[in-house]
Amino acid sequence: MAVAIPAQGQLRRDALVQPVGDTRSGEALIGAGVSRTANADFPLAGLGGDLTAFPELHAAWAVGPRIVFELKGAARKTLSIERRDSVSSVDLDPSLAGGTSRDVGDFELAVSFAPIGRATGFSAGGHLGVKLPNSDETRGIGLNTTDITIAALVSWGSARWRATGWFGVGILEAPIDVFEQNDAFAYAFEGQWDATPNWRLSVGTRGRASTRRVSPLGTGDLGEVRATVEWRRRPLAIDVGLGHGTTPLSGDWNLRAGVAWTLAGNRQAAHPPPTGTRRHHPREETS
Q1: Is 161 within a domain?
Q2: Among 121, 130, 230, 277, which is least packed by CB within 10 angstroms?
Q3: CA 160 from chain center: how many Å?
Q4: The Cα angle at residue 149 between residues 203 and 103, in degrees rounded to 5
Q5: Nearest 5°: phi and psi at 282?
Q6: Is residue 31 part of a domain?
């Protein structure tokens, strides 16, 4: 990770699913962006409105050819309050009476791995994610809970396209019910296609579906479908995405954009010497 030499750029900023099977060992990515969600809903606080997240940060590191660590979240979120319910399940900060709420967003730490298969073709492994409780529930935006995702990961692709997804369980902490959790079905899927050496298109969906008839407040269904266009000129990448919520709690349209910088990994591992190359011995040069 020490030298920023040109990389293949397989890691992606704000990817729904990182393409684990074809990452280069040691490759890393640092990205930042902004997003705007229309008609976001926060039932715990009884608030709704347009939500802006800036800056959204994303760091990914391929610690091995088939293992990727990620840390992503919003350093700042701003909610323009357009709707208030008559009753809130938490005691809200008095400053929200001004019509705006600002708070740090929740960050997620995740690892994805695919030890089975090859870089092209089929590969399989697992995904483990932990959402950290960074937000303050009195600000109305976050839940201040810890959620865990455990899933199986599968992938299939070639040199120009790849489809990757994980499917498993999300263990969701109930925000206001002591010793209560909701085990939901968690999923993510994304297909990407390298249309040209500089342009990449991707379409995918991510969300969760509660396994209960009545979900504890704050653990309801979430989902989004998203299309993203990425332009890259190694090691720089710029992306623009458009998403749409698929559940009542997911908000309506979401527009996001960002930039990322890729740091290449082991140059020798990425460019091994040709097979059969003869290495000279010092004694041969002096004889």
Answers
A1: yes
A2: 277
A3: 21
A4: 80
A5: -55, -35
A6: yes
Residue reference for tokens 């290449």: 264
For the segment 34-53, what is each residue's pLDDT rounded down to a tens digit? 999 999 999 889 999 999 99
Q: What is the pLDDT of residue 226?
A: 97
Average pLDDT, the chain: 87
Name the H helices within the chain: 267-270, 282-286
The residue written with tokens 């208030």 in the block is: 84
The model's pTM: 0.84
Whole-number Å distance between alpha carbons of 51 and 68: 29
Query: What Rg do the C-alpha atoms of the chain give, in angstroms?
Result: 22
The answer to whether 25 touches 64, Cβ cutoff 8 Å, is yes
CATH of the domain at 100: 2.40.160.40
Positions of the chain with pLDDT lower than 50, given as ranges: 1-8, 267-287
In a domain, residue 11? The reply is no
Residue with tokens 């969701």: 172
Single out the residue of 67, 70, 60, 72 nearest to residue 20, CA to CA: 67
Q: Residue 73 is part of which domain span? A: 20-264
How many Cβ atoms from other residues are within 10 Å of residue 245's Cβ? 21
Give the pLDDT of residue 274. 46
Kindly report the number of other CB atoms within 10 A of residue 32's CB atom.
17
